[in-house]
Amino acid sequence: MEFKIEPGIPTNRIHPDSLAEEVMLESDLLKTKLNYSVVSKFDNPQGTIINNSLFSYGENNGTPSVGIPNLTIDPRRAAYYIRMVLDANAVRNGFLPLHASAISDRKMTKFIFGETGKGKSLTLSRLIEGNPDFTPIGDDHILLCGGVMAGNSVMRTRYGNEETYQPLEIERVSPLEDYEIIIADVTGKDFSKELSPKNVIKDPIIKNAVLKYLISEPMEKESREVYHRLTSKLIATYRERFNNFVRAAKRIRELSGDKSYLEWEMKK
């Protein structure tokens, strides 16, 4: 599986090397977790992902080759590793990957951050209900570069024991102009408050939610040294880039509860 990301085009390009990889990349599961498009051929790929017993990393003439355990046997596990590799490559090439949801009306964008299970996708769907002029860009994997953004192509919403998949068939690439940041947690009591960039930069969300796929070590102890070689030098670069992103936001809100964010959006 070859991959590449081009400057100014915030979408990962992936070329499958086998039928099993092609089937995996066409699954809704990966489309909910990854920003990518499948291509039939590549000119000058930036890297290769191969099946391996452990997480591995090497270079051939400066082009990385990354081995991922259970690449086609366990798509959920593979999605996590692939996200790590693609995000590391995106940072290396000047992009800002975000573990976030985003909606936009091409003038204002709302980015929604939250730890896994705290309701990014649910908040996104409720905001769309209250703001019909806004359309979703993605609900889990957003890439920014040069004032342009794009996201994953299928939205997964979990509420209680229910889980739904919804294709994002509208245009998933949009210009980034003014934007707001929303930190959501639908599991708490209803409240809404405004935050300062300084508070957000110091908040654990940067480590626990935004950097999830670059700071979580592989489960296999033997793979962790390899993982650190791939990501450790990029994390400082990522933090600086993300902090600049936070400082440039027009407004930052912390929203909690099942209704407060929708009511706040409709009242303002």
How many β strands by DSSP? 18
- Profile the largest sheet: 6 strands, mixed
Give the topology string: H per helix, E per strand.
Answer: EEHHEEEEHEEEHEEEEEEEEHHHHEH
Name the helicity range. Answer: 25-40%
Unreliable runs, pLDDT <50, ≥5 residues?
none
The strand line-up of the biggest sheet is 3-2-1-4-6-5
Q: What's the number of helices?
A: 9
Mean pLDDT: 87
Instruction: Give the terminus-to-terminus CA distance.
Output: 47 Å
Tell me the domain tally: 2
Measured by DSSP, the beta-strand proportion falls in 25-35%
Category from helices, strands and their pairing: alpha+beta
Q: Mind telling me the C-alpha Rg?
A: 18 Å
Shape: globular
Features:
alpha+beta, 9 helices, 268 residues
Describe this entry's structure for a reader:
The strands form 4 sheets. Strands 3-2-1-4-6-5 form a 6-stranded mixed beta sheet, covered by helices on one side. A 6-stranded mixed beta sheet has the order 10-8-9-16-18-17. It has 268 residues and is an alpha+beta fold. The chain has 9 helices and 18 strands. Helix 3 (75-92) crosses helix 8 and helix 4 packs parallel to helix 9 (260-267). It starts with a strand and ends with a helix. The chain folds into 2 domains: 2-95, no CATH class; 98-267, no CATH class. The model has no long low-confidence stretch (mean pLDDT 87). It is globular, with a radius of gyration of 18 Å.
